[in-house]
Amino acid sequence: MSGVRGLLRGLGTTARTLTRRAHTAQYPHTEPTLPERSRGVIALLEENCTSCMLCARECPDWCITIDSHKETLPAQTEGGRERSHNVLDRFDIDFSLCMYCGICIEVCPFDALFWAPDFAYAEGDIRNLLHDKERLGTFMASVPESALPTAEEKG
Amino acid sequence: MQVVLNWGRRYSLWVFNFGLACCAIEFISASMARHDFIRLGVIPFAPGPRQSDLMVVSGTVTDKMAPAIRRLYDQMPEPKYVISFGACSNSGGPYWDSYCVTKGVDQLIPVDVYVPGCPPRPEALLHGIVTLQEQIAAETPGQARSRSGSRYADRPVTAGEVTRDLVAPPAQD
Amino acid sequence: MSSRDVDVTLGAAGVGGLSTTEMVLNIGPQHPATHGVLRLRITADGERITAAEPVIGYMHRGAEKLFEVRDYRQIMVLANRHDWLSAFNNEVGVALTVEHLLEMEVPERATWARTLLCELGRVLNHLMFLGSYPHELGAITPMFYSFREREEIQAVMEEYSGGRMHFMATRVGGLLHDLPEGWLDRVDAAVSTVRSRLPDLTGLVLGNEILQGRTRGIGVLDLDTVLAYGVSGPIARASGLDVDLRRDEPYLAYGELFGEDGPGRVVTREAGDCYARLDVLVEQIQVSLDLVEACTARLRDLGPGPISSRLPKKLKVPAGEHYCASENPLGLNGYYLVSRGDTVPHRLKLRSASFNNVQVLREMLPGTVVADMVAILGSMFFVVGDIDK
Known about the structure:
The complex is a heterotrimer. By secondary structure, chain A is an alpha+beta fold.
């Protein structure tokens, strides 16, 4: 008889669990509620990017590719200086390589990169995992409000 | 007929987990009660590759492991599908510049769906499964598989061929 | 274990009578419990194992070589991936080593927050093995209970760091984020939920006669072998080795937690069998939950403050070398850093716990029967990435 106690206890646990609601998250039917810091995908706010290349350099597996060219704006006032600025041609993140460490977002000095909690971008072709700047821009819509720079920070 | 076949294939994917590293833990997470992919018709009780339809490669594939993966894939009966789960099996991920890591499992076997993440959330795997099911639904049975155009799909390679010999030591002066 | 994992080849070793043909058995490399890929080459005489040799390297990813071309922040990313079940503890180990070499002071708040997260990581790790070990023995149910608790803790970890497994929250000099508003309360809530439901799991595991029958007196590891092979962590403590770096060589805030009237205590058992090893894990979860509560209480007392110290833009570590060891969930983890004054280390050697813990299988397995092999293998609580790096 001594061999039955553990068995009964196990059955009791099962029976008790049976009376509780299942904790299953019905994912494809209901979207999960994710914390704000959730690292799902990297969103790019293109107008903030100055193509300084810090993110591309600091990335631990170098999955960011940036191409840019210089454009010169004519002087705004008479006798003023011409101003040149960088125009972003290409900003690609290869999500098949990305390690989701957040270093690029941490180092970005101009608040151009953000974490968005989207995770549903599995692809049938690996080439589609290379997201260009337009696609990265679309994730801006789901960036949590608190992560965005406030108006006064923007100056 | 086609609809019935695809419907059957789509919702009874017996999965064979090729769990190699960190991602395997998230795969187990996805199979447990919280995320429970049996809801989607993915059944994680395949006793071996010969009885399974779907292989989920989760984790870093090293050159030493590569022949085993190819052999197990060859043992799976058609129709068979592969999900590459996580950065390491997509393209080598964090270890792409390592001397001993295969740069993506798609160099060995054709992959149907790539799930990005390091490791991906369990929900991302569920999304990958849904993507795969959509692909299966679009198939025409008996015809060439939709993935046949993809890389390495038709490569007649056996496990023996992906076994690499030892690299010779550098020549002594 | 299913038949696919056992590749049976007849060896030519045995000569003589019918019953003494020796057989060479390959277990793996696909491990039945899927925490990585370990291959064992076993020579068996009938049911009895006469020799066993772990064949490692299936998960060797060359992390130590990759460290040499990455700066100290980038190293963290790889460091938490070699032992994927104790990611946070690994990050902190690297950070501590670099900080010691820099002789840098870390804010007190960061130290306590790190301790808190380390202990949560330890609970996550132990819960995983508490689920997977019975699974290897054929009991599926405990896994569901252990993952239910893991999800609770992963949720608070994700809320803090953003990641579910690889947190990447440690930086040299502190932590990346400050604690979110009200997070400490949610940690306490998660801890009390886990604590209240833990008897379900432990009752299923430790109280079960079948499991006891399969683990009691099986795979006894004596103290001399433990010392000879450098086995550490819960496995060594189950054999009576009373060593825990958290108490013996305190780092982070452990000096206080394991001091007089601290909640920390070192869990040891004398038996050294599989059951004792499992028992140590169960009790260590309780201790870790106590430590977490002590940490949240302390963090509340400390109030707001800095969580990281300022770093130069280019972090160069002065030339020198330093060895730092930490008590990871699976055992002693050592980091030997040699710096030549650059932004990248010259060499960063990892002394990982599982490497030594698995070696001892060579001593433990001979003499046992094949059926017990799974019980012994599972009870060594290893992570293959930690063996092969």
